[in-house]
Design goal:
This protein is α+β, with helices and mostly antiparallel strands and 111 residues long. The chain contains 3 helices and 4 strands, in the order βαββααβ. Helices cover 30% and strands 27% of the residues. The chain has a 4-stranded antiparallel β-sheet with strand order 2-3-1-4. Helix 1 packs antiparallel against helix 3 (69-78).
Length: 111
Amino acid sequence: MIIGIGDVYAQIPRREEVRELMRSTQARIREQPGCIGYEFAESLEEPGRFIVIQQWRDEAALEEHYRSATFAQYQTAITDQIVRASELRLYTMQGGLRPVEASPSDPRLDD
């Protein structure tokens, strides 16, 4: 599996436009073959800084994504809405685990 984590720095006055572009883009990318997950989120501490987290089945799926019309359209649309070049880091992963079993939270235990 390939995992990508990136930063996109939007112009503050254009944040709403960027959000809408990201919403529509992530929906279309999630439909691409080999896409396990694709999500944008905005930083709580830095308004206008968006984080993208991508998961791809393999390198071939990621390369196909980069050749897609959806990716090209996103790149063209986002160019005039950012304040600096985006940064993306890619990682390969062989497997994963959940170190702690998930359980429902009980607010009474917080005391």
